Amino acid sequence: MRAAARETRFDPRSCTALLAMHAAAFAVIWTGVSPVALGVAALLFLVRGFALTAGYHRLFSHRSFRATRPVQIVLAVVATSAAQMGPLWWAAHHRRHHRESDGPGDIHSPAVFGLFWAHMGWLLSDQHSRTAIEEVPDLASDPLLRWLDRWHFVPTLVLATACFALGHALARTAPQLGTSGAQMLVVGFLWSTLAAYHSTYAVNSLGHSFGTRRYETGDNSRNNAFVALLTLGEGWQNNHHRFPSAARTGFFWWEFDPTWWFLRALAALGLVWELRPVPAEAYAAAPRALRSKKTAGTSATHANPNASPAKP
Predict the structure, then answer these.
(1) Residue 306 lies in a domain
(2) Which of 1, 20, 194, 231 has the fewest CB atoms within 10 Å distance of its CB?
């Protein structure tokens, strides 16, 4: 299988774009760095990371909760601005990944194709640029998601332009901050985009290569706390592959999953509801030592999902 991956034709456009983005990150040598630009980068990394995790992954790919239309729109647009293709493309590839996990049909399996290919090599192939609509018929009926999938570069360009405009405005109105349009574009936008790239890629590569296994899942999925830290909770891959429809991936209180915490907050506001709980069997199947440490807060995930606030 690794030989087949190496023989795959690379897409010149994808290769050029990805290499150019990484090379452009070194333009910081000329633009410099400022605290405000780093702050914007951190904010964009967190906000877009949440949209990718909660929106592209848990909502659109797995339907693990329901959300008001405004929340769906915000999650979809913000996630698309992370330059990881459109929502239909993303969800289609992810659903196929679960169906074929670490098998010959899993296009980014490190067990089959190697670590680099799983991390980002598959994205450079011309075989994987098409949106497999047949995998996401439920999402394809949504006109907004179809539009975003076709014009996925638009939110990215709008965000990049906004970052440049912000830096330019601050250079004129608050020069003591030491930023500029070019600096905000490179540090604020580009650095945060690349950080989101590699944290997402790490779920496919590191999350299926290094870590612990709580459940037998038939694949090589691993629970990796480092990846969970990078991705706001997506590193608990063994948990997730055992119970993919659950709205949380960190099943125990010590498993870092801030995406779940924020979804609970949105549920309290009535903006999302029917958060699919972790099945009771997930805890029954866990080692006894883990079950004994489960807190009341974790037990709450067994509640009826319909107990979440209803749609306003």
Answers:
(1) no
(2) 20
How do residues 190-239 score in pLDDT, each as one tens digit? Answer: 999 999 999 999 999 999 999 999 999 999 999 999 999 999 999 999 99
Q: Is the pLDDT of residue 265 over 50?
A: yes
Residue 23 belongs to some domain of the structure: yes
Bridge partner residues of 125 (DSSP): 10
Domain span holding position 107: 2-246
Of 150, 144, 154, nearest in space to 86 by CA = 150
In a domain, 302, yes or no: no
Is residue 250 within 8 A of residue 261, CB to CB? The reply is no
Q: What pLDDT, in 10s, does the model give residues 30-45?
A: 999 999 999 999 999 9
285 falls within a domain: no
Q: How far apart are CA 36 and CA 222, in angstroms?
A: 36
